[in-house]
Amino acid sequence: MAESRTPIKSPTDRRQQEDKFVLTETSNTPLHPKTIVCKPCERKGKKNVPAQFWCKTIDNFFCSECKVDIHDMLHPECEPECIEKYSSKPDTSLSKCRTHRHKTMEFFCEDHMEPICDKCSVTKHKSCKVVTSSEEFVSEFKNSPDGKEFHLELQNCMDTLEALSKDTDSQIQTMSCDKETALQNLMKLQTEIEECVYALQEELKDKLETSYSDEREKRQASRQKCEQMKLDIKYTLKTSEELKDDNATMMCLIYKGQNEVKACKDLVQEMEKTCLTTRLSHEFDAFSCLNSITMGKIVIRQHQRQLPSTMYSVVLSKRRLEDLRKFNIKHPSDNNQCCAFGIVFLSDGRIVVGDNANKNVKLYTKDGDYLSRMTLTDESSDICLIDDCSVAVMLVTTRTICVINFESHSKPVSTNIEISNITENCFGLTFNNTFFVVGTDKSIYIVPSMGGEAKRLRHNESKCLHLCSDRQNGMVFAGIDNKVAMIPSEDKTSIKAVDISEVEGAAGIDVDRAGNVYVCGGRSQNVVQMSKDGTNIRTLLTSDAIKRPRAIAVWRNIVAITSESLGQRNFVHMFQLV
User: Fold this and answer.
1) Which residue has the higher pLDDT, 88 or 95?
2) What is the domain range of residue 103?
């Protein structure tokens, strides 16, 4: 049989119903205990309508209006008695036997302590020892202590029940007032929340407009600079072609043109360094609104990109690495020599280094000046970028992803993401916008961004120490001994492995803005660059420049590399693509 369900009412319907209930409830005045009310009216919510008629057939009470509209329609053959007549008559039905309805209960069984009729006395109570007549029972009761107090006890009961009824009415009235106050508070709170949400929405809209205007102005300034330089060069070109005999003017044009060519080359190089793809978005995290009202946040994501190919731009795949500088990462509080197994650039150029030996993560400026640090609960391995100010660190034995936010330079904040079903030690880590990819002793797994059960993508012959993601197209690259596994974002089952004979013991791996992949060879002690399709591979660094390279990070045209060599492990080595 189908379950009957009450239709769900809207908040407005419920509020109107509650208001109506409050008015009905508070408007009713308590009746005198002896007042008999009209039953149909009572069922309709009119609790203070006194009855005027009693129908013996259905044992119900009616007011004059309900008698005509309801009773007389249903029982035209029956004439109900007037309520005054009914109330004044003794209730003779009280003395009738419930078993033998035509019999009057004229005896009292003291064994069972109940009134009985003569038929009951010879059937159900024939074996009882003491059965007296009603006259004897009443006479003995009136002369007993209980009999003398009988009417007083009844009156006391009436007074007690009257007090309880009044107290209950008082409680109902109090609850009714409380309910009305609570409803008013809810309405007030709703208004306050709506005002708060509106204020948050306006704040986010202002931030979005400001962010858009700032980024647009930067690009318009670059475009204006290009347009102005283009007009100047166009004039120089046109004038130099028209001049024939004016050598003095021609000499000045040549000097001007040479300076313009140099300025154009400098502009191209400058724009290559700062060339970014900027995306604006509104993001909302459902978990963040559990303890507070939030409308989410406006996120500005900037990724490095390659400028359109020009005569004066040198593609990254044809540049060489030039030694820039190195800086010390051993902090005075470190107990051991550093083992930097992870390194990554934040979007503004700050450098995050994971120190496995001292179980901490350190933050530096792009020039190598120390900013802050955070202690970890386990040895760390790979590090990857989450957003402009956040990184994720792979904790090896606890199989935990530690997410650290460096929005504040002095107080980094961390949260842990548990991986439920990986039993191997975890090393490699990267974030692909919506999920993590984790490398272990023998496999590569995909892990939801909020943690939970991991799904295995690939079985490996050896450890996967490092992973990286191309933030432009979502491609994931994994270094596995002398191979680079390429995992496309759209079809994670179509994994391609590229053999790199120049590399042994693949360690650190990263990708630049043009999609070129950089791989550190731990045993081969070199750094190679591979094109994004895996066809072109060239060696950038050998052991002459850095020994046993472990982790690598690329930012614009800057490359940072750490080493496992005893003489170089306390330093981050900085190189420039020129």
Assistant:
1) 95
2) 93-124
